């Protein structure tokens, strides 16, 4: 059974930092890309950052470039999102997404989400 478990969210003041973690199990984590998404109240879920299996190719949403860093530890089956210089508009529920290819098709997996609130 595939599981993605996020942690590390919380309340932080503007300008502060948080580090999110997503622990994966139930699929061959090291073979597949991982992503972080977020969803603010009343808005659609949006891609924040994406990292390929080997970690060499990384993409970010324009709104977080230079402030957020995605990384992965394939030995620990974990993907991270380091968030610096946080702004109130970063407030959202953050989700990690994984996927694998089995039986001729792709499967998508989502964590339960972790709340990030940026407020003074």
What's a quick, concise take on this entry?
With 120 residues, the protein is mainly beta.
Structure description:
It is a single chain. The chain is mostly beta strands. The protein has no helices and 11 strands. A hairpin with a 6-residue loop joins strand 4 and strand 5 (46-51). The radius of gyration is 14 Å and the shape is globular. The model has no long low-confidence stretch (mean pLDDT 96).
Q: What features would you highlight for this structure?
A:
single chain; 120 residues; mainly beta; seven-stranded mixed beta sheet; four-stranded antiparallel beta sheet; globular
Low-confidence stretches: none
Instruction: Please tally the helical runs, counting DSSP H or I stretches of 4 or more residues.
Output: 0
User: Which radius of gyration do the C-alpha atoms yield?
Assistant: 14 Å
Q: What integer is the average pLDDT?
A: 96
First and last CA, distance: 40 Å
Q: Indicate the structural class.
A: mainly beta
Please report the total strand number as a whole number. 11
Sequence of secondary-structure elements: EEEEEEEEEEE
Question: Could you give the topology of this structure?
Answer:
Layout: E1 3-7, E2 10-12, E3 18-25, E4 34-39, E5 46-51, E6 58-60, E7 68-73, E8 78-83, E9 92-102, E10 105-110, E11 114-118
Parallel strand pairs: 2-11
Antiparallel strand pairs: 1-3, 3-8, 4-5, 4-9, 5-6, 7-8, 9-10, 9-11
